[in-house]
What does this fold into?
Amino acid sequence: MKNSSLIRFLSIALCTAMVTSVFTSCGSDADENSSEVSSQSSTGASETSSSNQEKGSLYIEGSEGVTLTYWIPIDSTAAQNFSTLAEHPYFQWLQEQTGVTIEFIHPSYEQMEQQLNLMIASKEFYDLLYEPWYPGGPQAGIDEGCFVDLNPYLDEYMPDYKAALNCSDGSFGDWEWGPEKELYQPQPQRAFLEGCTTFDGSLWCVSQIWTDAYLPEAGPVIRKDWLDEAGLEVPETLDELEVVLEAFKQRGEDVIPMNLGNYGCNGLDGSIASAFGLYPSYFTMSKDRTTVYPHAYTQDAFKDYLTLMNDWYQKGYIDPDFMNRDSTSLDAMFLDDRLGIYFNQWTTPDIWEQNYTGEQEFEVVAMPLPRTDTNQQLTWLNSYDSQPTSYTCITTSCEHPEIAAAWLNVGFKKEAILRHTYGIEGETYELRDGIPYYTDAVFNGDQDYLFTCELFPNSTGYCSYRSSLMRTADSDTKLSARAEACLTWAQNASADTNWGYTVFEDDLWGEFDSAYNDALTYADPMVLKFIIGEESLDKFDEFRETAKSMGLDRAQELAQEARDKMAGKE
It folds into this structure.
């Protein structure tokens, strides 16, 4: 997040947003110069939906003759198999079940901003817009007549979405869990309501929602075979880590004990710096999410962190060229038996071991984030915030907003969750005591194809974290290798002070972005100089004051204003 392309809606959570010349209003034909526009393919679904005899529990009354236009990009894998999502098995099933016909319009990801601006200029929108980055943010989308406020539709047309939106104890998806819940011990995800509500209280979107908190998917891994040879255990504290680094250094001049992120901090997982109560890659805030803390670069504890990193650098524990390494070169070093501890990466130990082709034993394990002592509770954790993602907005051009609302609500019903997440009973999943478990067809199949072209779990709807854990599990009585690593990375840490989803209005956003990045153009290089010894740490106070005056103080002030406005304090 250290560049000028920071999005208007900021979150340190790692959830990334999934992202025609002439546009026409609701339900009409698009201009022939538009991107791909396709009606739902004729598979008998329209006849089924219009037959009273075929109406099921998901059928939406009043849908006869209604066609909704849905502006949504198509995933590259799906695009290789379908000309439109109308051909996707899940959406064909959804039409059969609900009776609603969807006309899909598929812009490329590169076209989305331009096409949205054309719609805004003409005040004519498709009925449903997928992840529109509205200039000025969600409140502007409401005020300027693009987004429909969904609050009036919640009770009658969207009761399942309402339940998921307000859930903060994990109970919404509790029906999925079987005995394996005792293994994974899922923690509840904070309710999504705040992030989906504008400053004036309007509900501006239907977001994908998960109610079990995701475990961290990034964290350090360490060569367990090297530890065994040295007679050492996996380090848990900074002192233990230093002993390990010295042992790894003794393996030879070609061995690098550990890497360090390009900016001198392990940004993805927060390793080492989090032991100092810091997360230097962005702002943090108070546990109650009301107060924005000063940037790590300006805190006293950051000098202590830099002092330790400078000491380890001088001792040869840190990659001497860490500031120039990319993931490709680091991957090669780790698999070439030259790197002992790999911070700042996403790969779990089982995948590393599968990819290794060398001649050593190569046993890799996940390493917990090091602490100052074993009793320390870390207050930063790589995690996903409760923010709008894979979301869809209903527009003011839609002539049937109640039908659109009811159709989007279906994605939060149990029948649809089973279909888009688990597939077809007897083929891709089986029920045991009412709990869905994937079959060998999923474990042994092409999961990229299955979860893109047969299932559709990443749509606007309920997103099952349990599913993502179980699709790689060997059994329901033993943790998967991936889950075991993620649980290790989560040990003794919490997301209490993580920066949360924050909306900046346009005027605030431009000033914030400039102030923040102006400061970092000075501060980031100075951090590297402190670590490698080109600048004396005696200059830290000067560095701190300069970084603050160049923009960090102003950025913090603007961030606080944005948080206050979200909380209704202004």
Observations:
- Confidence is low (pLDDT under 50) at residues 1-53.
- The chain is about 35% helix and 10% strand.
- The radius of gyration is 25 Å.
